[in-house]
Amino acid sequence: MLSIWAGLKGRSEETDVDTLQDLCGVGSYRLSDQESNSFDYELVELSRLLADLSYSKTFSDQVIAAAKKMGVEKARRVVIQYDFAYDPAAVTRAVEDDPVFIGVFAYSDK
Q1: Beta carbons within 10 angstroms of residue 88's beta carbon
Q2: What is the torsion angle, in degrees rounded to the nearest 10, for the CA atoms of residue 40, residue 37, residue 63 and residue 23?
């Protein structure tokens, strides 16, 4: 499983921000299991942001469909945490409105 967020705001100047901890309320995670992508924080199709990520062929269609239902078809960046099931209902810390949590999805590393 993986959890994915789409960043809609330009945050290129915020170099000291830990996206998951500072913006999403995550207490702990393995940084080595995280990937992100942006094109200089330009607003681009979500499919373009996902294409270069590991294993994306196994989950991108589901992510794009879920994001579209949320009204998110373009983003400035994506953050993926592999082997992590984010549960917004369990978060007790402050959560920003950006990045937007898209959901938890299955993926395959085969």
Answers
A1: 11
A2: -90
CA distance 47 to 60: 7
**CA-CA distance, 39 to 22, in Å (whole number)?**
22
Indicate the domain borders of the chain: 2-11+18-105
Residue type, 22: D
Per-position b or e across 48-78, b if 16+ CB within 10 A of its CB = ebbeebeebeebbeebbeebeeeebeebbbb
pLDDT tens, residue by residue, 30-81: 889 999 999 999 999 999 999 999 999 999 999 999 999 999 999 999 999 9
CA nearest to 24, candidates 108, 75, 73, 84: 84
